[in-house]
Structure formats: C-alpha cells, structure tokens
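Reviewer 2 asked us to include a model.

Predict the structure of this chain.
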Amino acid sequence: MIKRRKLKGGIRNWTKRIDKVFQLYIRLRDTNNEGYGSCCSCNKPLHYKEGNSGHFQPRQYKNVRWHEENVHLQCVYCNRFEGGAQYAYAKFLGFEKADELEKLAKIKVSFTDEEYADIYYKYKELVLEEESKKIVNNS
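Predicted model (structure tokens):
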C-alpha cells in the first residue's frame, strides 16, 4: 500500500499526474513478462517503453480518459499519425464495445480533489504491481 501524501490539487495538476501513471500502467498491462506486446490497431510488436497508450475515444472526454477499456498499447505511428487508427481500434475492441465507449464519452463528469487522488493512487499501486511482475520474471 502506497502512503498517501498531500498533493497540490487543481485539474491541471491532477490530470498531468494521473496521465503519467495511468499511461504507464496501460503499457505495462498490455505486455508480457518481458515487456513486449503488440499494437492494438496494427499488431506491430513493440516494447512497452516504445509504445503509446492509445485512446479509442479522445482524452478530451474526461469520462473515458482513464477508462481501462478505452485505452490500450498502441504503436506511435497508429496513435499519432493515423489518428488512432479508429476503424482498426474499433475492430480490436468489438463494435459493440466501441459504441458503448462512444456513448459513455459524451456523459460529462467532474471530479473532486479526493476522487482525483483516489484515481492517482489506484494507478500508482497498479504500476508497482505490474512492474514487480516484469522484474520478477526477468531475473
């Protein structure tokens, strides 16, 4: 269990902080014990340090920004230069799930500092858990 500290609040601070740990968690989650996985859109093999955390629905939609089913390991090319390769991403998710995420994205939400802290610490712990799996199996 990670000891919680008092952190500076505000949407911008929390968003930057959460994005960092959440995106690392996604990249770790979507890779094997050696840290390798494949792009959810084109299946290109890549290491978690080389990939992106690609969002199916854009990050601007706060309701799905940190939704685990909306974000997967994606190569830099598909994520940044192919606009997320949306059709291939939707096929990867399944069109029913893609529609569900699209509807969910349109629902407006706001978070309190306490809710932001809960999200941050949840993913900070998950990152440590995932990293320990990779380290133990790489020894």
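The CA atoms of residues 27 and 52 lie 7 Å apart. The chain has a mean pLDDT of 91. We have added this to the supplementary material.
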